[in-house]
Amino acid sequence: MTEMSYPEISFIRSNIPKISQLSDGIIAMEASGIYTNYGPINQKFETRLVEQMFGGVGRCVTVCNATIGLMMALKYATRHTDPARARYVIMPSFTFAAAAHAVLWAGFTPLFCDIDPLDWMASHQSEDDLLRKYDGQVAAVFPYATFGNAIDIAHYTELEKTTGVPVVIDAAASLGAHDAQGRGFGSGSPHAIVCSLHATKTMGIGEGGFIYANNPDMIEALRAMGNFGFGQIRHATMPGLNSKLPEIGALLALSGLDHLDGVIRKKVQIEQLYYELLHGLEFQHQRGTRTSYQFLPVRLPAHLVPHRGAILERMKNRRIGTSTYFSPHLHEQSYFSTHSQAGDLGATRALSASIVSLPLWHEMTPEMVQYVCREFLDACAAYDM
Fold first, then answer.
1. C-alpha distances out from residue 366 to 187, 274, 369, Å
2. pLDDT for the residue 5
3. What are the contacts of 50-54 at 24+ separation with CB within 8 A?
4. Mean pLDDT of the chain
5. pTM
6. What is the dihedral of CA 64, 67, 68, 72, to 10 degrees?
7. 234/213 Cα distance (integer angstroms)
8. 168-170 vs 138-141, strand pairing mode
9. Contact 146/286 with Cβ under 8 angstroms?
10. Which residues 6+ apart lie within 8 Å of 317 measured at CB?
11. What is d(CA 104, CA 98) in angstroms, rounded to the nearest whole number?
12. What is the pLDDT of residue 2?
């Protein structure tokens, strides 16, 4: 293979259905005159999504983007909470900014917990320590299914039962992931599971998302909240905003479901090839049977951490896209550092300083992956002293 075989390998390549191939659906939408307000295409997508991805168990409601979905889910979960008394939401700092913004917009303060150094999700011990330290002051627990990894939902169900503190799960990148039993991640969850359909996700539509739960009352309340809080006709009965997904987005999402499983299977094959070619490096310990990665996260060994910037610059010079999700982590970012509290974040700091994200998109060929791995290992070897 020659260097010129791959003049550029992008970090992420969107997997969005082509609008030009959906002319029949667009014509039908135009004929109906319905473009939003949970229209018939949206209803069809919600029904099929639950059947295809969650085994027909539970309900879901679409949202215009997952950040709005997180805000709504937190607002609903804390509807009986007095923010003057319980002002904190426990969440990891190793996550995307949208999660902390959602906490602040819902009227609470992020309280950052540490992560498990193996699976990179919220440390249960750290969560417990903060619940004890801030006893009576915690409004919600807000774990993140890091990179689509499968959170132990049963653990959080028991935590909510024993503490009375509600749980909301940020599952932004989890659509298509499987839990330890091989089911669609989140299936049967009594807690709100918020997923993204952003252009960067395995199934993207541009902007969009949904909230899933095996709780019809919750989903219908969230549907009303997303329609200006109209619990009755043109009568606001609860906090509200406009979160509705347009019908054109639902049409794209329906088309995306047709191909989702095949796309994920291809990405899993690419993921496994990375593991083989980068044997000896540290990867995320997966708690489920399948993760629907947007990219391939890998951790540099400690002696290479000071050289991460130079390694990634070398990859850039070889025209290979990389990134560093999530570095800096949230408590290192200026806005959140002044609008949050944090426990000990030792594992978070160590992972954030050493993380590298490599390209993983379903149209990559084995030769492309081999090229990326060879260049990455060469870049690391240049500083392997």
1. 33, 9, 5
2. 56
3. 50/212, 52/257, 52/260, 53/175, 53/176, 53/184, 53/257, 54/183, 54/184, 54/186, 54/187, 54/188, 54/212
4. 97
5. 0.97
6. 140
7. 26
8. unpaired
9. no
10. none
11. 10
12. 45
For 172-191, write each residue's pLDDT tens digit. 999 999 999 999 999 999 99
Report the alpha-carbon distance of residue 110 to residue 102 in Å, rounded: 9
The dihedral sign for the CA sequence 258, 261, 264, 266? negative
pLDDT in tens, 15-46: 999 999 999 999 999 999 999 999 999 999 99
**Angle in degrees, CA 125, 92, 280, rounded to 5:** 80
- Which residue's entry shows tokens 């392997």? 384
From start to end of 14-105, where are the E strands? 59-63, 88-92
Please name the residues in contact with 110: beta carbons below 8 A apart, sequence gap of 6 or more: 88, 89, 91, 100, 103, 104, 330, 336, 339, 340, 341
Q: Which helix (H) or strand (E) holds 272?
A: helix 247-277
User: What would the pLDDT profile of 73-100 be if each residue is shown by its tens digit?
Assistant: 999 999 999 988 999 999 999 999 999 9
Q: Is 97 helix (H, G, I), strand (E, B) or coil?
A: helix
Distance CA 365, CA 373 (A): 13
Pairing of strands 109-113, 341-342: parallel
7 close to 319: Cβ distance less than 8 angstroms? yes
Evaluate if residue 117 carries a pLDDT over 60: yes
Angstrom distance (rounded) from CA 86 to CA 164: 12
